[in-house]
Design the sequence.
């Protein structure tokens, strides 16, 4: 208790008196809000406290499924540990959702009461979360109810109070909670819930009626297309102006492709339009959407599904109907001004091709969320090629979430039964055993869904598995209804009508008229292998279950996307991913994060902290066993040429040509730095290795030049050298002085300093190179005239000028330089006065260059080195097990402002380097801290900022022989507290 009080006093000083005072975050009052870009969410703060508390109490006015669903994994772990909780809510405004209350009450460790504000005649607006850990309370109080928006997305203001059990404020809060809890108006759940459910349903019904009676404003649709739609129409105009007659819209499911096409048809003034779909229900839905945009200004009709409105201005038809001659020949080839093709990845099919061969409109507009297919390299099957590689707009999952275009999802990576592994271990009897079926049903019921009933998709690894699981589920009781599950296995052999019936049955209401459907009756789940990956638009889907290994991020996103359409009555979608012992588990966080660097550190960090940084109201959670399985998969993964070739071919198919390095930047399929990392040379070297149609040859000098820029400068971590090379390349005289350099640097947002200019000259002259290997590798590179350089002027060397005569070389060098500057703009522009960006990653070689060291001493820096008035400190947080005893330093965070660091062994208090570090500040010198989690994560370290030693002592460390060696222990204070998500990742 005594130590807690000391820590608490420091925390109070930091929070309320002087923010520069170092204290432990766990004992410091804090402001709690939502900002995913900074890794902050109210939800994450609540989860952190729940995970370490001995007991908890919560008092909030409103509780919804959207608020508690992301907490279910944590609450389940607390139930297993027997951590008790009390939750008090109210019937105030009848807003809390009965299903949410029932879910909380079903947990054996939680007692739930409902305060009857109607009977008490008093409002109930409390929003407090109380956590006790031993003798300390941490209490979050402010504006956040237990709703999805409040915990993840809304602007919310909360404060976290830290107090001992004897603190006055905490005592007052606990007493107030207990007063309300013991009040006669605080009703036990079982004695209140039925009455509350009836009132809730009545009021909900009234709200639904009021909502339906609201007049839809056409102006809302006319004047306010979403961000994707505006960008799409702008780009489409450019494509048409260039004389093209085909264009493709690539947009994540649910982002408004249909409305986008309607806005485009209106803005471009087309009078006769055909909209082609592959299901009758979609034709009807699309027609309704168009009516909201056009009103009665045009006539609209259906062709197919029993309708034949051939003469309408705008015709909505199914391809199955229109491809038949009795319908197709109703129209002259030039009848329509524009033809829109929904789910355009099906265009290579014969039915679509017959329609396309018949018509000659002014515009063919294809729309799809999934253009990339496995047969893109087959002639006539490449969707991009069929639309002349004209991409009007592309918006993928991450951007769509940032712009709130999709239904939020709550992803749970949960452990499959332990004997499920990769193909060689995938015994069919295990995949469909009763134990696994029971496990699936229990998890699906626990994590639930949003809406009146379950409407789920289950992705299996084989047709046989889907059929057997469906059969077993149909003989299993659904705990939510007390009746058998209603499921169907749907695979490639199913006819179009069978598929359509199944989709209708999944989407329908419980008591809907089913006389028009062959098999009748609603479905709870459709099980499938691949036919649900694409071309399925069941907006009502509220739960997606994945029972197969993740083979690629593309397929994962396709399957995830089936549940992300917004729909009335659906607040969120639950994604349950049953994670077995699969080699490709590392692809799951890659798919969810949208990260294309394939960097092990980034992938690990997302597994641990993805819930903090995912945009919008979505969340990501993995249970402990799943995390471990993914980490094992990450450890085993390697950067394979096959993967690089696959990503390369995808973009090549899309563009219809060999992609440039800038194309990879623009389309984001993969970080092109991976090509450079793999070859240890340049993108040109990669193309020579894998592209049979790449016939460009360069001289040895030119190849070395490209490799030098690619290996040292292309990462964009400092723009100075890139600007020099670009200026020398573009200038007619090939000359640049420091003033012209200053103007160019400031134009890209940099700040000019003489020492940076001199350092960049040193790099470009190759004087910086230090190792024999580098000097040999780049011995033919010559960028600048040495005599001019002595006068601090830069003039293009003759060898550089001669190399630029080759226009192909000039083009590739320009693109390499341009990529580096783009990367600088995106990732490194907001640098501090040291040209370093907080929390960005740097190698030792990068740091030697950016800190203006005269030579590349990266190979001898090791843990730290004091040179040129700077001392970068490099720490690997988790040391390898086989490290020697004398180098196994116990470096760690004391808190998010203070780092415990050990020098190398055999350093005493009297050592020169010790005295340099101690007196660095007063001597105008700087210490920098760089940290990485482990050696598995490559050569790059997170830049944590400048540090100041605030405590030091000489101690000792034993070597492998047991001999005690002197060593210095420092406490380094960070100039800026570590960002919350990064601190959690590194220190856990």
Sequence:
């Amino acid at each position: 208790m005594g130590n807690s009080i000391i820590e608490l006093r420091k925390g109070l000083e930091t929070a309320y008196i002087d923010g520069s005072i170092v204290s432990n975050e766990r004992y410091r009052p804090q402001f709690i809000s939502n900002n995913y870009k900074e890794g902050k969410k109210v939800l994450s703060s609540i989860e952190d406290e729940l995970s370490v508390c001995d007991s908890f109490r919560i008092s909030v006015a409103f509780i919804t499924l959207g608020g508690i669903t992301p907490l279910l994994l944590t609450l389940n772990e607390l139930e297993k540990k027997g951590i008790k909780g009390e939750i008090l809510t109210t019937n105030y405004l009848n807003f809390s959702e009965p299903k949410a209350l029932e879910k909380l009450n079903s947990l054996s460790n939680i007692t739930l009461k409902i305060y009857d504000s109607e009977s008490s005649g008093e409002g109930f607006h409390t929003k407090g979360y109380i956590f006790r850990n031993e003798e300390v309370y941490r209490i979050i109080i402010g504006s956040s109810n237990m709703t999805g928006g409040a915990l993840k997305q809304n602007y919310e203001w909360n404060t976290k109070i830290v107090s001992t059990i004897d603190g006055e404020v905490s005592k007052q809060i606990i007493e107030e909670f207990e007063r309300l809890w013991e009040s006669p108006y605080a009703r036990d759940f079982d004695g209140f819930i039925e009455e509350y459910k009836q009132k809730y349903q009545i009021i909900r019904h009234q709200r639904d009626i009021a909502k339906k009676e609201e007049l839809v404003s056409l102006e809302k649709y006319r004047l306010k297309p979403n961000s994707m739609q505006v960008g799409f129409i702008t780009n489409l105009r450019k494509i048409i102006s260039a004389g093209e007659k085909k264009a493709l819209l690539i947009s994540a499911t649910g982002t408004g492709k249909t409305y986008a096409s309607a806005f485009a048809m209106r803005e471009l003034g087309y009078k006769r339009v055909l909209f082609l779909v592959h299901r009758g229900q979609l034709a009807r839905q699309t027609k309704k959407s168009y009516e909201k945009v056009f009103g009665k200004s045009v006539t609209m009709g259906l062709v197919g599904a029993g309708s034949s409105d051939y003469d309408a201005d705008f015709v909505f038809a199914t391809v199955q109907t229109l491809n038949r001659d009795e319908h197709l020949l109703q129209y002259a080839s030039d009848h329509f001004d524009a033809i829109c093709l929904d789910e355009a990845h099906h265009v290579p099919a014969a039915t679509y091709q017959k329609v396309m061969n018949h018509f000659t409109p002014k515009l063919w507009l294809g729309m799809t969320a999934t253009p990339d297919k496995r047969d893109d390299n087959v002639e006539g099957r490449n969707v991009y090629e069929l639309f002349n590689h004209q991409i009007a707009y592309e918006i993928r999952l991450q951007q769509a979430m940032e712009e709130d275009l999709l239904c939020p999802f709550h992803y749970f990576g949960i452990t499959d039964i332990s004997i499920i592994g990769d193909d060689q271990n995938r015994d069919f009897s295990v995949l469909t055993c009763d134990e696994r079926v029971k496990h699936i049903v229990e998890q699906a019921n626990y994590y639930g869904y949003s809406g009146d009933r379950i409407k789920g998709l289950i992705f299996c690894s084989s047709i046989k598995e889907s059929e057997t699981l469906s059969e077993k589920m149909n003989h299993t009781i659904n705990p939510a209804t007390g009746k058998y599950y209603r499921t169907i296995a749907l695979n490639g052999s199913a006819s179009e009508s069978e598929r359509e019936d199944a989709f209708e049955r999944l989407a329908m209401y419980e008591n809907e008229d089913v006389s028009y459907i062959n098999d009748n009756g609603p479905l709870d789940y459709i099980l499938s292998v691949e036919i649900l990956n694409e071309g399925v638009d069941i907006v009502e889907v509220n739960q997606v279950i994945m029972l197969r290994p993740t083979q690629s991020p593309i397929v994962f996103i396709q399957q995830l996307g089936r549940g992300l359409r917004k729909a009335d009555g659906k607040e969120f979608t639950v994604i349950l991913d049953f994670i077995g012992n699969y080699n490709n588990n590392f692809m799951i966080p890659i798919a969810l994060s949208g990260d294309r660097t394939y960097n092990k550190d980034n992938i690990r960090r997302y597994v641990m902290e993805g819930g903090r940084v995912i945009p919008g109201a979505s969340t990501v959670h993995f249970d402990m066993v799943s995390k471990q399985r993914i980490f094992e998969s990450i450890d085993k993964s390697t950067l394979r040429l096959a993967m690089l070739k696959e990503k390369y071919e995808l973009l090549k198919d899309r563009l219809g040509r060999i992609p440039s390095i800038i194309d990879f930047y623009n389309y984001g399929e993969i970080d092109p730095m991976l090509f450079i990392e793999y070859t240890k040379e340049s993108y040109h070297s990669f193309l020579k290795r894998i592209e049979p149609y790449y016939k460009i040859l360069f001289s040895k000098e030119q190849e070395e030049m490209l490799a030098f820029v690619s290996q040292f400068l292309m990462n964009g971590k400092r723009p100075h050298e890139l600007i020099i090379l670009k200026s020398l390349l573009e200038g007619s005289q090939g000359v640049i002085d420091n003033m012209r350099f200053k103007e160019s640097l400031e134009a890209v947002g940099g700040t000019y300093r003489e020492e940076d200019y001199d350092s960049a000259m040193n790099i470009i002259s190759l004087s910086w190179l230090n190792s024999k290997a580098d000097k040999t590798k780049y011995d033919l590179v010559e960028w600048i005239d040495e005599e001019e350089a002595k006068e601090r002027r830069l003039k293009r060397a003759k060898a550089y000028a001669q190399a630029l005569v080759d226009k192909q070389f000039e083009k590739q060098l320009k693109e390499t330089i341009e990529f580096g500057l783009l990367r600088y703009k995106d990732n490194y522009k907001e640098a501090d006065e040291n040209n370093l960006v907080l929390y960005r990653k740097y190698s030792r070689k990068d740091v030697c260059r950016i800190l203006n060291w005269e030579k590349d001493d990266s190979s001898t820096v090791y843990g730290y080195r004091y040179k040129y008035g700077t001392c970068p400190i490099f720490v690997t947080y988790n040391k390898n097990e086989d490290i020697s005893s004398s180098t196994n330093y116990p470096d760690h965070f004391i808190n998010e402002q203070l780092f415990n660091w050990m020098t190398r062994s055999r350093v005493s208090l009297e050592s020169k380097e010790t005295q340099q570090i101690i007196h660095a500040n007063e001597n105008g010198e700087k210490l920098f801290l760089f940290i990485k989690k482990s050696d598995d994560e490559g050569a790059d370290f997170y830049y944590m900022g400048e540090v100041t030693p605030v405590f030091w002592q000489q101690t000792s460390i034993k070597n492998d022989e047991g001999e005690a060696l002197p060593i210095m222990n420092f406490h380094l204070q960070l100039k800026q507290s570590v960002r919350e998500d990064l601190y959690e990742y590194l220190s856990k």
Summary: Confidence is low (pLDDT under 50) at residues 214-223. The CA atoms of residues 195 and 910 lie 78 Å apart. The radius of gyration is 32 Å. DSSP finds 41 helices and 34 strands in the chain.
